[in-house]
Amino acid sequence: MRPVTHLGLAALIAISTFSYAQAPANVPVETPLPKTPDTSKQPTPEENKAAAATAKAKTDSLPSPGEALDPHIKSGSEDDVNAVGNRNIGGRGMGNWYSTDWEIRNGKAYSMEIEKSAHMVTDPVVVEYVNRIGQNIVKNSDCKVPFTIKVIDSDEINAMALPGGFFYVNSGLILAADEEAELAGVMAHETAHVCAHHAARQQTKMNYAQIGSIPLIIFTQGTWTGYGIYEASQLAIPITFLKFSRIDEGQADWLGLQYMYKAGYDPQAFIQFFEKIDALEKHKPGTLSKVFSDHPQTPDRIARSEDEIATIMPAKPDYVVTTSEFDDVKTRLARIENKRKLNDKGKDNKPTLRRAGSGNNDPNNPSGNGSSTGDDRPTLGRRN
To answer: Are 189 and 252 in contact (CB under 8 A)?
Structure first.
């Protein structure tokens, strides 16, 4: 006999009728009054929204690669991860007037300026490890230039890639990452800026703006207005190397996810890390580099990245999330950073006055006997 799982409405009515029919005639049957709903305990609109948000949070999770794979991806397009390495992303043309030689030449010049002003991490274990991760990503990207990857000793969470493949990772970024895949995701994003020639394309846009300002300069020549337009058109080139438009940042997200995926990393780590550091910046402002925080992972960028993972990345049997080597290097780097901070503590570059010892060897001392007078204050001698 199967267990009864539920009763229909008709069955409930029949049972209720049977019970009342079998009741003794001399026992009054009390019919229960219908209950009036207690409106005082009804949830408020704010409580409804909070409950809906809680329910969404419980069911919301990052999409897995290939769970909604698009079967109509055009071969060789920016959406075709199988064509990575054989695509010309942002190459020379109307939107990019500059050659690869120009990118390498200018990137090298500014990299020399960075290394003059920044303190570099020279520990061979840390540098080799970070370089190996970066070179693996470059090998699985669309870049056509060799990369030089170095580590800057800075607490800011940042990484930057100059045109021509000159790449710098802040030690603060390494220490902020909890997994190797998170570090690889940021490095892949910056690599994508180089592969898509974003610096050269930004410079080309500036050239178009300068050409467009020529008629204004001619008609306002000799006036303060003309001078202001000229000055505004002479923006410093390094800005174009480090700050990109939202469109460029979105493309770097799109390509960077593909590069880390091709290199074997879990692409979900990219979204997780950017959400984490965005929350960290809100909790502790100033943690992120100014350039890095100018283009936060907005909800639309996150949604687009999630869509990319689900629709254009075929599922793999496994992904690299982290390694024991990452933990070892992170611990080693933390020791180096702590040692540096201890050595730098109290160094404010202010002049100090050394207190004289108990002995008196000052030839200007009238006593001249070298004995202690009990006054160890510094003395000022008159020149002959």
So the answer is: yes
